[in-house]
Amino acid sequence: MIGVCLPLVTRSIPALSPERSLFVIVKAFAAGIILATGFMHVLPDSFDMLSSSCLKENPWHKFPFTGFVAMLSAIFTLAIDSIATSLYSKKNKAGVIPESQAQGQGGDQEMGAVNAGNHVHSHHHHGSFSTKDGVDGTKLLRYRVIAMVLELGIIVHSIVIGISLGASNNTCTIKGLVAALCFHQMFEGMGLGGCILQAEYKFLKKAIMAFFFAVTTPFGIALGIALSSTYEENSPRALITVGLLNASSAGLLIYMSLVDLLAADFMGDKLQGSIKLQIKSYMAVLLGAGGMSLMAKWA
C-alpha cells in the first residue's frame, strides 16, 4: 500500500510533480524494477515449473511452453494496448477531460468531448490539444490504458505469489520470503502508482486501483492457506497452472516495462532534449533492475 500510494501524494510536493525531471528518474527506476520482475523472478519460475521432472516427458519436456506463452502474452498485450487506445481515441475524437475537471463538467464522466465553449485550454493544431494541466490529450489516453493493463498484469502475478506463499509448509523459507516480498511489492507498487498518477484519474478511482493492488497478495495468501490441505505445489496440475500464469504475467510485464514505460519515456521530447537526464534515467533503470535482480536470490 505504501509503494503504490507514495507516487500519488507527490503532486503536493513540487520537486516530485510529473512535470519535473526527478519524477522521470523515479519512474525509470520503477520501470527497471518491473522489467527485472518479469525477467528475473516470474520467467525463471515458469521455466522451473514447466520443465519439472514431475511433468510428463511429452509434451512438457519437448516444447518450450514458457517462452511460447510469454511471447503470446506480449503479443496479446500489444493488441489490447493498441485496440484500447484506438477505441478510446475514436470515442473521444475531440479530446479527453481529465477526471479532476470532469467532476465539474459531468459528475462521473471520465472521458468526454471537449466542447468549444468550455474553459479547457485547447490547441487546435494537427487535431491535438492540451488539458488544463498541460497534458496532451492523446498522451492522457495512453497513460490510462497503460495504468489499467499494468495493474491487470501485476494483480495476476501478485495472486500467484500469494497462493504459492500461503500454501507453503516450509516455515524457514517463508520468513525470508515475506521480507523479500515486502520490498518486491513496494517497488512494483511505486511503478504502478506513477502510471496511475499520470493517468489523472479522480480520487475514487485512484483509491480503488491502489486498494486492489494492495489486497491481491494478501488475498492470494489467504487463498493459498485455505487450499493448503488439498494444494500440492509439486503436483502436475499445480505446476502447469501456475507455470502458465507466470509465463503470461512475465510476457505482459516485460512488454509493459520496455514498450510503454521505458521506450515511451526515453523516446519522448523531455529525455531526447537532455543527454544529462537520459544518463541519469539509464542509471536509475540499472539501479532498479539490479536491485530487483539481487532480490531474486531470496524471492
UniProtKB/TrEMBL annotation:
InterPro entries (alphabetical): ZIP, Zn/Fe_permease_fun/pln
Positions of region (Disordered): 99-133
One Gene Ontology cellular component annotation held by this UniProt entry: plasma membrane
Keywords of this entry: Ion transport, Membrane, Transmembrane, Transmembrane helix, Transport
Secretion signal span: none
Keyword set includes RNA-binding: no
Family: Belongs to the ZIP transporter (TC 2.A.5) family.
Name of the protein in its database record: Zinc transporter 10
Gene: ZIP10_1
